[in-house]
Amino acid sequence: MVAETSSSQPDQTDLRQRSVAVPVAESPAPASPAHKPYVHITEKPFTLQNWHQHINWLNVTLIIVIPVVGCTWAVFTPLCRKTALWAFLYYYMTGISITGGYHRLWAHRAYSARLPLKIFFAAFGGGAVEGSIRWWSAGHRVHHRYTDTDRDPYNVRRGLLYSHIGWMVFVKNPKKAGRVDISDLNTDPIVKWQHRNYVLVLAVMGFLFPMAVAGLGWGDWKGGLIWAGVVRLTVVHHATFCVNSLAHWIGDQPFDDRRSPRDHVLTALVTFGEGYHNFHHEFPSDYRNAIKWYQYDPTKWLIWIFKKVGLASDLQTFSQNAIEQGIVQQRQKKLDKWRSRLNWGVPLELLPVMEFEDFQAQSKERALVLIAGVVHDVTNFIEGHPGGKALIQSGIGKDATAIFNGGVYDHSNAAHNLLSTMRVGVIRGGMEVEVWKMAQRENKDSTIKLDSEKNSIVRAGSQATRISAPVMSADAA
Ligand SMILES: [Zn+2]
Ligand SMILES: [Zn+2]
Q: Which one, 45, 88, 155, 284, has least CB within 10 Å?
């Protein structure tokens, strides 16, 4: 991955304005001699004097300082069984509120949720300490719209670490923000309330609530704060950050490989099922990320259960037809690449045209065999001919069309393929026209003449040298 200049950093214009949760660090106002044009900090190189201005200190506090302090503290904080169970449960509740709520419900509108479910997601998603719904969803829509470009907030082409956490560490240039429509978020009362009160939500749901449950429940106030609060949020952070990093880094691309998103079970295991990210970027408003029953997508299962109990409705899915179209096209692309690496012989239209007399004369110097108007040099194949030397030698200098196509032995598909790699010319005359027809015939049963790599597609049994009924050989007369 190539590191890019600071001038091309994606930015967070909207994000800064929209968020009180993870705002971008303020840059200094323009210097007083007003004649100097104002230059945003991201346009300036890092120096010993200005490096601290490049850092988003609020984000750094929330995603690095607090986790590091808390996890260090955890070493000296005994973990009792009840607190461990609670921390794990709270990890799951807050994590799934990000994937099921922030991501699939609000960022992608993949389904509709009833008010109690929205309140649940807004509260527990807030406890994941990843910004307000409004900020998070806006940034995520930008990511989908501008994937892998400078406007992608977590552009993986700037490196794995950048897409995982670096994008939040550095200040961004508001002028370079990608724009998306968030009018639906702006009119959602839950989203508006949570955005306005995010600091409160963060403090209560991120730290106080998990602490109070353990404290009031079994007297483990400190364990509740450290294990169910800070350690838990650190794990949730990195689990969900993996959707931006790992899901754009490892795995397969069954639907489209032109951009970075990938499918991998490992990423799915870490991200509550968000690891089928190639599918997700192709079909973003589908409530599923995994489409096979055996693939791990607990977020999808949970949404399905919410539907069954009446808390969710309008679950969006793309048609199986649209999904399979993508699979077919991607497989075709891979086949085309594979085809391009193989030797199919010189294309018929590029072969030199020979007179029949020339063919016969040259046959005295090298082993030329004429089949269906195409001249083949079999000199290096005589020894290896499965039917024996004598048979192949009997065709040298002759039209062996009938012999090859069943007169003596109806050669296999593989034999026709092998033969095509030995093409050296075509014969002028009546047969010449037939050869062009055959060149077309090589593409029969298909409207595609050339594949995406600009190679002609030769289907099994349709090679130019294959004729349906044995013909009389030209020199038999
Ligand atoms: Zn993505
Ligand atoms: Zn998404």
A: 45
> H or E segment at 424?
strand 423-427
DSSP 379: G
CA distance 70 to 72: 5
As beta bridge partners, residue 354 has 427
Give one DSSP letter per residue of 39-66, joined into a string: --GGGSPP-TTTGGGGB-HHHHIIIIIH
CA 80 from chain centre, in angstroms, equals 41
CA-based torsion, 274, 276, 279, 281: positive or negative: positive
pLDDT-derived band at 15 (thresholds 50, 70, 90) equals very low
Give all domains of the chain, ordered by start, each with its CATH number: 6-326 (no CATH), 348-476 (3.10.120.10)
In the predicted structure, residue 396 carries a pLDDT above the cut 50: yes
- What was the pLDDT predicted at 17? 41
Please tell me the distance between residue 312's alpha carbon and the centre of ligand 2 in angstroms.
Answer: 19
For residue 408, what is the DSSP state? S
Q: Residues 436, 372: contact at Cβ < 8 Å?
A: no
Centre of ligand 1 from the C-alpha of residue 264, in Å: 13
pTM for the structure as a whole: 0.80
Which amino acid, 411? H
* Neighbouring-strand partners of residue 369: 376
pLDDT at 14: 39
Bridge partners of residue 366, in order along the sequence = none
CA of 239 to the centre of ligand 1 (A): 14
Distances (CA, A) of 121 to 99, 112, 195, 272, 332: 10, 13, 13, 15, 41
Mean pLDDT confidence for 241-260: 95
Ligand 2 center–CA 344 separation, angstroms: 43
The rounded Å distance from CA 451 to ligand 2 centre is 32
Q: Looking at residue 429, what is its pLDDT?
A: 64
Length of the chain, in residues: 477
423-427 vs 353-354, strand pairing mode: parallel
**Distance from Cα 143 to the centre of ligand 2, integer Å:** 8
Give the Å distance between the CA of 274 and the centre of ligand 2.
9
Tell me how many degrees the CA angle 126-56-54 measures, rounded to the nearest 5: 160
Ligand nearest to the CA of 147: 1
In 4-40, which positions are buried (b, 16+ CB within 10 angstroms) versus exposed (e)?
eebeebbbbbbbbebbbbbbbbebeeeeeeeeeeeeb
The three-class DSSP label of residue 214 is helix
Give the DSSP H/E element, type plus range, for residue 369: strand 368-371
